[in-house]
Design a protein that fits this description.
This protein is α/β, with parallel strands linked by helices. The protein has helices at residues 2-23, 38-47, 103-112; strands spanning 27-29, 51-59, 66-70, 76-78, 82-94, 116-122, 132-136, 142-144, 148-154.
Length: 171
């Protein structure tokens, strides 16, 4: 009797595992859709059995072009799972914030989003020398791709040297 109960439990567990293995979604290779128009990318992914969602981003890629995908191309995902496409809004970008960054880091951030950089120096008591006081256009504003952002860089406080007049007569 005990042996029959153990065999029945094993059969139930084996049946459950078999049912799970037979009913779980198939794994599908995620195709590469970066640099494709959104409609073409969506159509390809839906034909492969994926649910597609779209997020937009300011980017220098042509408008309505896929610039990122998640999960990435070449990975395996369950059929019916969601693939998120990040799509360019067109040929403008949001200027990244640069205030109080070292000049080299600020320049890298701007160049990374396809903006050109020009610099001017200005004295500042609040911002250390070599760091950005402000940018024009300001961080958070939209700018055309390949347009120039001017960084105003601190050259430190504007110190004035006075001659030593102690002991001199007033004439």
């Amino acid at each position: 009797r005990r042996r029959a109960a153990v065999l029945a439990a094993i059969a139930l567990i084996g049946g459950g595992i078999a049912a799970w293995a037979l009913t779980r979604p198939e794994q599908v290779n995620v195709p590469a859709v970066i640099e494709q128009p959104t409609d073409e990318a969506r159509e390809l992914l839906e034909r492969r059995g994926f649910d597609v969602s779209v997020a937009t981003v300011s980017n220098c890629a042509p408008e309505d072009t896929v610039v990122e995908q998640d999960p990435p191309a070449g990975s395996e995902a369950e059929e019916g799972s969601r693939v998120t496409l990040t799509v360019s809004l067109g040929l403008s970008v949001r200027v990244p914030p640069t205030r109080d960054l070292p000049l080299a880091e600020a320049r890298r951030r701007l160049q990374r989003v396809d903006l050109l950089v020009e610099t001017r120096e200005q004295p500042s008591r609040e911002i250390r020398a070599g760091r950005v006081i402000q940018s024009m256009p300001a961080g958070g504003e939209e700018a055309d791709c390949q347009s120039t952002v001017t960084l105003i860089v601190s050259k430190g406080p504007n110190l004035v040297t006075f001659p030593n007049v102690l002991g001199d007569s007033q004439e």
